[in-house]
What does this fold into?
Amino acid sequence: MSTDQTSSRPRLTRQRQLILDRLDQVDTFLSAQQLHAALRAEGETIGLATVYRGLQWLEEAGIVDSVRTTDGEATYRRCSMAHHHHLICRRCGRAVEVHGEVLEEWSRAIAAEHGFTQPEHFVEIFGLCPECTTRAAQNESSDSL
Amino acid sequence: MSTDQTSSRPRLTRQRQLILDRLDQVDTFLSAQQLHAALRAEGETIGLATVYRGLQWLEEAGIVDSVRTTDGEATYRRCSMAHHHHLICRRCGRAVEVHGEVLEEWSRAIAAEHGFTQPEHFVEIFGLCPECTTRAAQNESSDSL
DNA sequence: CTGGCACATGATAATGATTGTCATGTTCTT
DNA sequence: AAGAACATGACAATCATTATCATGTGCCAG
It folds into this structure.
């Protein structure tokens, strides 16, 4: 019992800490590429592959969660609690965590109704955040197309 | 001017019809690559790029809809009606269209609550279909890990 | 303190899906 | 039948992601 084979030696390294710190500073989703560029811009030396690996590891560990953008890029964000969904601004990328018991129940019910087991659901709501809504309204007048 | 610039000349071509026919035959999601391979296997001459373009067009036209797999590949399926979601078997890929007024209302409410406008939502439920559930239960006894 | 080991890193190459290019084919209009 | 407008197909280009592999780093035993 004293043997702990699941967790081995070093784990949360300097570069993984860097990634995590960075994600703590923003409240939007960031792609691996963006994260890498941002860290390099700050003068940190970190490889792109390391960012990918770090994010994968952090995701498996349940420390961050990921969302695919419509063009297939994976983006990551630090997440606080067990289960939640996101309300994402399709313009600036700002994200808000939302919860919904209604939704959980609904998905369980739908799955059961069709005889599906072990249901898991992925929900993302995209829209325009208050700021971007205002900005969009202002640009309306000068819109040619 | 009787010129109709929104809808121009040829549209639903032979190869787009091929894609559509193929999607009508299955009830799972197919990727562009799978679709292309399947059509070529049947002896049809159709280019990969054409499949991609065809699917894009069909999607914009609302004739098919797409879902991203967890590894980022876009998959497509013929869809019947305006707005719905999917209950997808994560083992065999079988998909069932589901509807939920509850969900629509919920997403509108959540968006409004946070001042977001023009909400759009993406919902997918993944689980094991009845058949795969049975099969999984049978394999349990011989599972080593 | 020191050697060794397991894992992490970083640079780069490889992969794989998707998109762009461009010359040619198709089809519709006149 | 001619011309315009779009579609096609082969191939190159792009872009995110993953694999490779030699090197680095931190932790453990002695």
Q: What stands out?
A: The first strand of chain B starts at residue 30 and ends at 31. Chain B touches chain A through 34 residues (CB under 8 Å). The two ends of chain B are 72 Å apart (CA to CA). Confidence is low (pLDDT under 50) at residues 1-7, 141-145 of chain B.
